[in-house]
Amino acid sequence: MNINNAPHLFLARRENNPLREHIIVNTRQAKHFPSEPASSIALFESLGVKLAQDGRAQKPTVVIAFAETATAIGAVVSGYFHDCFFVTTTRETLPDWATALTFQEQHSHARQHFLCVRDEDAFRRAAQVFLVDDEFTTGNTALNLKNALDGCLAPGCTIYAASLAASSESMERFREAGVVPVTLTLTDDITNKAEPDRFSPDRECTPRSADECVRFNAISDQRLGVNADSFLAETRGFCAQLADEIPETPGGTLEVIGTEEFCYAPLLLGKMLSEKFAKTAVHCTTRSPMLPCETGRSGFELPRPGEYPMTNRVKLPSVYDPARTVYLYNSQPCDLSIIVTDAEFPDENALRALCGAAGGRKVMVVSFRGKRLLSSYDRSDAELLLTDITGRMQPLSPAERERLIQSGRHYSELLPEEYEPSPAYLREYENGLAVWAKSVADAVRTVAEAIWAEKGRRAVLVSLARAGTPVGVLIKRYIRAKYGVSLPHYSVSIIIDRGIDRRAMEYILARHSADGIQFIDGWTGKGMITRTLRKALEAFPLYEYGVGRDKLDRMCEIAVLADPAGLCRLCGTHDDILIPSACLNSVVSGLFSRTVLNELIAPEDFHGAAHFANLEGSDRTLDLVSAIEAQMTYGSAELPPMPEGNGLAETRRIAAEFGVSDIKLVKPSIGEATRVLLRRVPRLILLRDIGSPLTRHLVELAAEKGVEVREYPLKNYRACGIIKVMSDV
């Protein structure tokens, strides 16, 4: 078929690309050209119908869509297969734990592509793989990926090259290579170049802020591979939720803009909203540089045959990486522009520039990963699965918070006040770090070696926020330094009486095998967190992820550095050592708060936390990690033998002796006693040896707060804090 018989296909001149002078612009693709979304989806669906014929819909399938242009096409196509794993190639940097293939797109301005194959089982059990692109000219890129996939697929797996348009040359090359080509349109004998005499300068725009921002916590990331049904359902759910909230605008015009590789959600949202507006168009920013010419159509009108398609261009910094240049084409004045992105932390200046380039009188930004919490941890060290509630809650003083807790409010509903530590206490913290750093480093080695021995490369570190997070960072760094493997590490919320964050668990299980998960915390007090975890996992539908009752016990195990309670097999020591991150709240824990679960947290959200930017001057998070890392040795280690009995009996004895009716008010261990002084209203601090340099920071902090310190014959623990009953105050 001649391209002139496909009225939605046009040619545009590439800028500064000697390898390929022109690019095919599909005015129904919703990528480079603003397209009517229903027409775009109908076009993609026609490809899906064609691919799913002859019983192929029932076979185990992998759909791989090429970035940037085919990500939405692949998403629609994946919905036509009943057992489908969907993944897109990407030019973005993947997480360092992701297993990736690298291949080339020789003619492109950005040649290097990555394909994440972390879910090797999905590839090995596939009966068919569809390589999906908008168009194939030579087929080189698809063949490069096909070669890169050698060894990943089962014998007999059929590879298809599927596209909206393709040349006869590419079709023949595919057949010669054993790849089955499927296309909707042939592009031979292209004559419609519509070469302008003169190209136009870039349109200048004034950066602006969005009028409204909407944020979601999406689980799915097509760059890492997803179950197609789950991915499509989640995207539909978020888009429907948003579409319901946007008022109908009869006679109005709407522009939806995606960002680079994130194309499907903007397209689906545009389709859902098209009934509320007279005209709706969807397009995306792109890395593709094409020259514009002001001779085409205006507004939302399509170009006529023979016209040049790109009428204006804005050059922008990328919201993912402001050092990278992207382009937005043919944006026109409209009533509302909606920018839809999955940039986790979009660059603020780049986002303002994009808002300025949009044509809407009103601009809305929708982020599919926009509720994530900032922290001072390096993102290569930990991924925080926490919703940002900064500025949405009033922090409470220890006394006020304690009164509310003891009157019936759950502690997770309240945000503790945090403050800069005094110079005197900072000196004691530094002394404590110097005293305990070697012991902590040795405990890290012991735990890390045990995790590696039992799980190896399949291990997934899941630290319990906040105390477990620096421990997870240290374990990850140890394994990376000794074994050269960067394990995934997530920080999630667990709350006594409320359980572990289900949404965070779903996020992790969408990316990793359940039998690789290793929960991590700092220390044990009475074992409440261990019991909370078990209860939560017993109620969680782990069978959906291949975890039977026989594997539950091992999955419920928490690895800790210090286990004075005598409850954890996976521990560095059963001695009550100080984990220095207990000493300073957020300023040694990434500058984020205790986790929160209250009315601010929607069902689709992770548990929440606040970022204390006002304490940046006191932040010692990375200093703490570096100080302990400097003491690490990388030899073998054995887990300490389990002690006889446990600390719960001792805790009950202390409660009885001091007339405490609620055992929750007794907090044994150095770490828990420190927390009592920092966050609660203490009645008394008990120390095994009041003159010991190992607990001197507790003496200093108690003196600051006017709290009695008493020597007491503790057995399992070096320290214990008793919280004051507020009705006695």
Q: What oligomeric state is this?
A: single chain
Whole-Å distance between the termini?
87 Å
Number of strands: 30
The CATH topology of the largest domain corresponds to: Rossmann fold
Number of separate domains: 4
Structure description:
The protein folds into 4 domains: 3-186, 3-Layer(aba) Sandwich (Rossmann fold), CATH 3.40.50; 212-367, Rossmann fold (3-Layer(aba) Sandwich), CATH 3.40.50; 383-629, Rossmann fold (3-Layer(aba) Sandwich), CATH 3.40.50; 647-728, Ribosomal protein L30/S12 (60s Ribosomal Protein L30, Chain: A). β20 (460-465), α11 and β21 form a beta-alpha-beta unit. The longest helix is centred in the middle third of the chain and has 33 residues, at 423-455. α10 (423-455) crosses α18. By secondary structure, it is α/β, with parallel strands linked by helices. It is built from 18 helices and 30 strands. The N and C termini lie far apart (87 Å). The strands form 8 sheets. Strands 18, 20, 21, 22, 23, 24 and 25 form a 7-stranded mixed β-sheet that branches. Strands 9-8-7-3-4-11 form a 6-stranded mixed β-sheet, with helices on both faces.
Can you lay out the helices and strands and say which pair or pack?
Elements lengths: L8 E5 L8 E5 L10 H15 L9 E5 L5 H8 L5 E5 L11 E5 L7 E5 L3 H5 L3 E9 L3 H9 L9 E9 L1 H9 L3 E7 L25 E4 L10 E2 H18 L3 E11 L4 H10 L3 E9 L27 E5 L7 E5 L4 E8 L6 H10 L2 E8 L15 E2 L2 E2 L9 H9 L16 H33 L4 E6 L2 H16 L5 E7 L3 E2 L1 H8 L7 E7 L4 H12 L9 H7 L2 E5 L8 E3 L34 E2 L11 H9 L17 H11 L8 E3 L1 H10 L2 E6 L8 H10 L3 E3 L7 E5 L6
Parallel strand pairs: 3-4, 3-7, 7-8, 8-9, 10-17, 12-13, 12-16, 16-17, 18-21, 19-26, 20-21, 20-23, 23-24, 24-25, 28-29
Antiparallel strand pairs: 1-2, 4-11, 5-6, 14-15, 21-22, 27-30, 28-30
Helix pairs in contact: 1-2, 1-7, 6-7, 10-11, 10-15, 10-18, 11-15, 17-18
